[in-house]
Amino acid sequence: MDPYASAKEELHGLLTSPTVGSGANEDTTRLQLIDALLFNCLGWGTQDAVTEDHHNGSYVDYTVGKPAAQFVLEAKREGIAFNLPAGIAGRHAISVPTLLEDENTSKAIRQVLGYCQERGVPIGIISNGHQMAAFFASRQDGVPPLEGRALVFSSLQEMYDDFKMLWGYLSKPAVATRNLQRYLLGAKPQALAPEKLANTIPNYPGFRRRTELETDLKVLGQLFIQDLEHEKQISDEFIKDCYCASGALSQYSMVSREVLRARYASVATAIPGGAEQATGKRGINPKLTAEMVTAALSRRPIMLLGDVGVGKSMFLRHLIRVEAKDVLRKSIVLYVDFVREPVFVNDLPLYITERMSEQLESDHGIDIHERNFVRSVYNREINRFKKTIFGDESDPAEYRKHELSMLANHLSNEFEHLRRSLEHIRATSGRSPLVVLDNIDQRPPDFQERIFETAHSIADSWPGTVFVSIRPSTFFQSRSHGALAAYQTRVFTIAPARTDLVVSKRLEYARTKVLESGTGGIFPENLSIDDDDLVAYLDALIKAFKVDDELKSLIDNMSGGNTRTALMFLYTFIGSGYVSTQRVLDIAESGRVYTVPMHEFIRAIVFGDYDYFNPEASAVCNLFDITTNDGREHFLLPNLLAHAQRLAESAGGDGLVSAASLYSFGQGIGFSQEQIGAQLDRAVKKNLLTFSESTESGAYRPTSVGSYLYRKLAQVFSYVDAMIVDTPIVDPSSRRLMRDVHSVKDRLQRAKDFRVYLDSQWELIDSPDVDLPFRWNEISVMLGDDIERAESKSDAAIQRRADSSTHFWN
């Protein structure tokens, strides 16, 4: 039976499913209905979907499509029906505003809308197993997603009766040809892009083999680059030596300082009452340390706003343990880091209470459940109890029984008992609590909302000060229609630290620890690398980050101000299969320090653990990828990036560029709305642009990642060589030249052929009448020069080996 007929038969079987109409919970709905719809009736395989996908702090039920996600599906319990207005049944193209009239449907649509826009996924689907609505949630074409159209099926019977339409728009082959997008947006069909070279390579993307030495270095890199900050025995020392003050604008960024300043200034201006920077040229903002003391009086938490990876946690630890140590000498710090806590917490206040109670006992020697401590906390209640009818001590045993019952009743509310305990501690010792709720933006939105409510409850009723660290986007979302809308908060912003300084300090710290204790101290034993070799390896990296401005520029720009990403790049390089570790050590043995070549660092972060460039796993985006059989599209993404940067840097405002202006520009140079939307979605997903909902139709802000990509990496052989396997070639004669090759000589020749191919496609778009901010003809010249340099180095290396061989035999 063909797939279409088989799928329709499977759907017919679902019509009699006992789950339909049972009011089943969400898990059952997913298992018995939605799984069946996706995997049995619409042609998707289980390998195409990721369930409970986590990204930037949110979880979604289904993310479907590989290598690029095609849609997000949010499941609701079968009992929650999407009630549609009378007369809608049987109609499939329905305006989203019509769907929003139903409360349940509106809530589900807005939820999946947020998920899609965070991930750059174009299609959002909501389903309760027997109803389904699909809409474009990440279109950003000048029309707000909530004002577009949706494809709706009101029942399983309707899906079966109109199965041709269901299959034609939501099946795996239909989504691949973007039928739904054309149906909802009215776009004309365009031929799909040709197959990529990657699709013809067996075992793609493969895994890069490492030597034993490189494997051991990778283990050590995990320890001294990423994990030292979590080692309790060295944590304070680590924080002192590795902390870098935030707020210094990068001297290497390829986005202008005006745009960088506007990015962080816009956060402050968008907050009622404004926001203060947490640090300035002279260090910690004194208003922050003053607020730490007075926040308890105002009964409101202090919010620390900073983008992902800027170092909010490191800032907090340094503030508490170093900068404000004297201010907090009489404070009891209670720290809950949600990046390490369980995913699911039913009773959040109770869970926070348990973590803090554990810290009071382990860090401060205070057991709030110890008998004498409890009696001290409730001494007033005990004295009052003695005056009641149960306080007659003539029968000690009976009195004791009633007194214990009274105390047990107080202890039954753990959250309240902790509050009373902290008040008792403050009254008897003068020590007030400082509560820190960190990394909450690693969690789903509804979980974050619960934390906000708990934080305000703690700030309002507990003694002491409460800190909450979150991303600006999370803050604004909650301010608009979440828990924070009901509260006034004190806000401080944290800008990124200089990534080159963060990396250098981390390397220096690792070197110091090796010299102090050797690899036998905090590092594992029985490694294939000894202390001297490890120091030599670190010396090479330290030197590179001190003197090599190109390397610092690469790390700074490609991390986009995210110090976590910068450290991940460094970790990726250490022990990489694309770096000859033995050569580093051989040069060190001769008394010299190895000079890290840029091409080794680029290849390490582009390929990661793989033999070939893998667009889903790599932190680097393929600038030349296309969605249609239109070779001009190779230059669409770089031109959108360049145009966005040009507008942002000339606007003199907050650095935002409207979606409408980008679509207008793209259509003005001959591209369809469909092509532009696909490339903008890709740009957001890979952080080449950031998307903001601050305007009615949305707006974009350029990032240093996108700028560096089209201005620098596009002209580098190491980058272009990696992208060839992932780039569709529309010209058949050129496509035959793009083969899977491995030797440097063959890769250089393939890059030359690829450059010639792109030159030919550029001629189709280049025109004296069109103002293109990205000029491939200029980049092509620089790429040609870099290929020649790589060829010269390769020839010289071959000659050295030949000379060495001749010398040996003579």
β-strand amount: 5-15%
Structural class: alpha/beta
What Rg is obtained from the alpha carbons, in whole angstroms? Answer: 30 Å
Binned, the helix content reads 40-55%
How many extended strands? 18
Largest sheet composition: 7 strands, mixed
How many helical elements? 34
Give the low-pLDDT segments: none
Biggest sheet, spatial arrangement of strands = 1-2-3-5-6-7-4
Task: Give me the secondary-structure topology.
Layout: H1 3-14, H2 26-41, E1 49-55, E2 58-64, E3 71-75, E4 93-95, H3 96-99, H4 103-119, E5 123-127, E6 132-136, E7 149-153, H5 156-161, H6 163-170, H7 172-176, H8 179-185, H9 212-227, H10 235-242, H11 257-269, E8 276-277, E9 279-280, E10 283-284, H12 286-298, E11 302-305, H13 312-323, E12 331-337, H14 348-364, H15 371-377, H16 379-386, H17 396-411, H18 414-429, E13 432-438, H19 445-461, E14 465-470, H20 472-481, E15 490-493, H21 499-517, H22 531-547, H23 549-559, H24 563-573, H25 581-589, H26 598-607, H27 636-651, E16 657-658, H28 659-668, H29 673-685, E17 689-692, E18 699-702, H30 704-711, H31 717-723, H32 732-735, H33 744-762, H34 776-809
Parallel strand pairs: 3-5, 8-15, 11-14, 11-15, 12-13, 13-14
Antiparallel strand pairs: 1-2, 2-3, 4-7, 5-6, 6-7, 9-10, 16-18, 17-18
Helix pairs in contact: 1-2, 9-24, 21-22, 21-24, 22-25, 23-24, 23-30, 26-31, 27-29, 27-30, 33-34
